[in-house]
Amino acid sequence: MLLAVALTILSGAGVLRAQEPNLVRNPSFDQLDGQGMPLGYELGGDAAYRKSLGNPKLDASDAGIVLDGAGIEGSVSQTVAIDPRQGRAYSFRFRGLPQDSFEVADNGLFMKVEFFGNGAAYDGKLKQLFPIIQQARRDLSVNGDMHVGGAAVWRDYVLNFYVPFPQVDRVKLTVACTGGGEAPTSSAPQPDRNLSGDDFDTERGPAGFGRGPQPKLLDTAGHSFFVTDFSLIALPEPASSRPKAAPAAALGTGQLLPLGGRWFYAALPGETRAPALFDHSNAERLLYRDGPGGQCEIPFFDNMSATLRAGDKDLAGNTVTADRLVADNVTVRFDAESMILHTHGLPNHPTGRFPEEGFGPGSNPNTIQEQDETYYIPLVPKVNPNHFALAGVSSNGALNMGPIGVAVNGVVFFNPFDAGQMDASNLMDRCCGHPNPFGQYHYHKYPICLNSPWSDEGNAHSPLIGWAFDGFPIYGPYESANVMAKDETGPAALNAFNIHYDSQRGWHYHVTPGKFPYLIGGYWGEVDRRNIRRPRGNGPPPGGPPPDGPPPF
Ligand SMILES: [Zn+2]
Ligand SMILES: [Zn+2]
């Protein structure tokens, strides 16, 4: 459930504004028409509707559409009205999962947008998706359980486009598989085929893979591609052109107000002060500059609301019986020293089903629970001259147990170990996370499922995915086109902390799929100790990091 926020919600943060940025109707495919088909969608060929995608015993995912490879054609579409006066830059995305045996012929899987207005059709724009899947299989399979299956995960597929003519008032959004039978022989990435019109896209690009035995818990042997969570979002013009943070005038829509460190507020025309609180209603105007003269990230865009799912526990520990939107899952404010992030800790993507039952030893007995946590991310990180990294494969105190950083969706990062010094990277769900005994959902490795406004397809330096508690930013796995940071050698090589330096971003961490320490290998900088504590709001422990009690997770 991406941005389907149509409720006004009372919360501790006050009354949040009602809004509905997602222009797609029935984005989660859960409303049905008289025939039992998803309301508002057109299905073509052999596209099939399912009330739950994947294995309902394993995955807490939304309803959606199944497309098959293997020579079978199918499509799912929705036609959406737009108002071109509201701006002409849009982002069409959906969440997809390619099962391990999903194959199509060249160009057999794509997403496209077609333009209509005044009774006429105006062509469209199309993006090939199978190359992205191939690249993920080549680069990210090792991110999975036992270093297998990490490419068969939920992730966002994104097509950003510019409406070519002002008279366009409808767009048709389609994901389609044209089958074709033969598996592709070439793994070369295909460029986007731009059928017409402007293309402001500065997106990162294309994606391969290795097969192995099926992971122990995953139901990935099939040959389907799952589709859900359609969204069409008007991009704010500053964000749509991925601006350099300076000069502010280049944005054309008001001032860029500094918030401290690398943070800026893209003010509306006439606005002279930034809001005191950032939430889902203004996240698209909260910019993080990569570095001096660098590009701007909009890290919290589409990342501040989440769903508390039926079966999970609320803050009070009660089991929730129906999915509940938590619009203010993440909120952010600033003081002179810190970006202060409050989170309910709920993942805004599908997860495994917890507790895991019936899978024998290694099954996670915990339940995902809503949290109430505040983290302090230093605005100006300082290198700690006394830093040291994890040594080898056992914890030496370089990183505390419990949270060590926070992702842009408010889910926390943990070190590579669970209690008992087990390498935790093999105990995750299909979205790279799992809950600990406090119900706190967390990542021990690259969370491919994370939303990013700029999809990471491996053709440029990855976007920001979060921060360590020392304030240094954590980026996705790629250093440049088709080169993962973990494979860099020489001056650009990552050190034992998984950090390196470049002139644009300064010191920054990278995640290293399949390669210890996966996230960060130690704190390069000085940590705000307020962050080091047990979950559930307990204060910092008197004598350093808390122990992590058994059982694992
Ligand atoms: Zn880098
Ligand atoms: Zn864990």
What tags apply to this protein structure?
single chain; 553 residues; mainly beta; Jelly Rolls; 35 strands; disordered N terminus; disordered C terminus; binds zinc ion
Please describe what this structure looks like.
By secondary structure, the chain is mainly β. It is 3% helix and 29% strand. An eight-stranded mixed beta sheet has the order 28-29-25-24-30-31-35-34, with no helix packed on it. The protein has a five-stranded antiparallel beta sheet with strand order 3-7-12-9-10. Strands 4-6-13-8-11 form a five-stranded antiparallel beta sheet, with no helix packed on it. Residues 1-19, 181-220, 238-252 and 536-551 have low confidence and may be disordered. The chain binds zinc ion (2 copies).
**Largest sheet features:** 8 strands, mixed
What ligands can be seen in this structure?
zinc ion
Strand order of the largest sheet: 28-29-25-24-30-31-35-34
Structural class: mainly beta
Tally of individual helices:
2
Strand content: 25-35%
Helix content: under 10%
Number of domains: 2
Q: Could you list the spans in which at least 5 consecutive residues all have pLDDT below 50?
A: 1-19, 181-220, 238-252, 536-551
Radius of gyration, taken over Cα atoms and rounded to an integer in Å:
22 Å
Mean pLDDT: 80
How many strands appear in the DSSP assignment? Answer: 35
